[in-house]
Amino acid sequence: MTVSEIDSLVYLMSKLPALGPRSARRAVLYLLKKKDSTMAPLITALQEVYTAVQPCPICGNMDTQSPCHICLDKKRDKSILCVVQDVSDLWALERSQAFKGVYHVLGGVLSALDGVGPEDLKINSLIEKVHAGDVNEVLLALPATVDGQTTAHYIAESLDGFPIKISRLSHGIPIGGELDYLDDGTLQTAIKTRRSL
Amino acid sequence: MTVSEIDSLVYLMSKLPALGPRSARRAVLYLLKKKDSTMAPLITALQEVYTAVQPCPICGNMDTQSPCHICLDKKRDKSILCVVQDVSDLWALERSQAFKGVYHVLGGVLSALDGVGPEDLKINSLIEKVHAGDVNEVLLALPATVDGQTTAHYIAESLDGFPIKISRLSHGIPIGGELDYLDDGTLQTAIKTRRSL
Fold first, then answer.
1. Residue B3: predicted pLDDT
2. Banded model confidence at residue A192, pLDDT cuts 50, 70, 90
């Protein structure tokens, strides 16, 4: 193809995490076929997000307000700090509507393989927050992977000595999950940590 | 979430054919994390395509030129007309670099289930092109589905009486395809239409 404008748009779209070259072409064609009803609103929405959204200087959330609406919310319990790997995890927890504290986005987890050390993550600013004294509990909502749990242990050790509670999300069978499809590790954990009805 | 700008962008992205709500959120977060290196070029590319790309009045291809670069190309054989369902098929054939004629995009295939009749497709303008007399061969490059083949037969009947050759793409085993993974219909066709080495 010699159509460079379309090609370069397909190339940029194909770099998005869920898209490859083929699905990016399909997406661009979809936009081209309904330019006014799909492409124009998408351009406007992208421009609005581009100009308005910034990372929150306190927690690392992405928001149009700075600090973000969670950090500014007076109803949120500032004494419970939930540590998450990424903004997407923060959004997932917000969708669950089960957490009423505030967040701290690490920006990743420790990984020897990927060369991610403590200095690459927002661990120092977490310790500073706890040091400042307003935090009673740190909830480590990190992924149940080797790297995630290594990071959780590293943070727990770093916070050793502070008079705070350190908690983690419980492991077990996902709600709606079929036992047959679950991995052995999850089943073992669910049996070991069984609770009386 | 109360972040309406991000929400509306995620919603618009989730309408793209390859994306759902979850992958759209991931894509938006990816863009937000590297705003200047990913989001700014994407906005620019979208704007360029939005303003520059139009459907070709002759063949239906999407291009920055009007008529498109294929219809304007003097090296292309105007006497062979390749009928395709959609612009994506035209692009796929162009990538193969095997076809040196010109195209005619139908904009779909006949479908009783979806209520697509001949008047919904660019069949009349195809007949007019053949009627004008410059076409020697019509290659029906339509999908090997029931609807695609019904459409091919409908067009072949509509062009009955014109002194032209009507052809279709050959069916058979895809290059690199394992026999084990192929459906019965393809294998039957490949055996029936076997060729001597």
1. 52
2. confident
Are the beta carbons of A53 and B6 separated by less than 8 Å? yes
* Contacts B17 to A, Cβ<8 Å: 23, 26-27, 30
Is ipTM beyond 0.90?
no
A133 class by beta-carbon count within 10 Å (0-12 exposed, 13-18 middle, 19+ buried): exposed
Task: Judge whether A88 and B29 are in contact, CB under 8 Å.
Answer: yes
CB–CB of A158/A127 below 8 Å?
A: yes
Q: Is there a contact between B16 and A31 if contact means CB atoms under 8 Å apart?
A: yes
Burial (Cβ within 10 Å: 0-12, 13-18, ≥19) of residue A37: exposed
Q: What is the mean pLDDT of chain B?
A: 90
Which B-chain residues 75-94 have CB contacts (< 8 A) with chain A?
A: 86-88, 91, 94
pLDDT of residue B2: 47
Residue A82 amino acid letter: C
Its pTM stands at: 0.77
Contact with chain A for residue B73, Cβ under 8 A: no
**What chain A residue is nearest to B39 in terms of C-alpha separation?**
A50
Cα-based distances in Å from A39 to A44, B12, B16, B47: 9, 9, 10, 9
Residue A185 pLDDT greater than 80, yes or no: yes
Out of A92-96, A177-181, B101-105, B125-129, which region has the weakest mean confidence (pLDDT)? A177-181
Characterise A177 by phi-psi region: left (phi > 0), alpha (psi -120 to 50), beta (else): beta
- Decide if A49 touches B, using CB distance below 8 A: yes
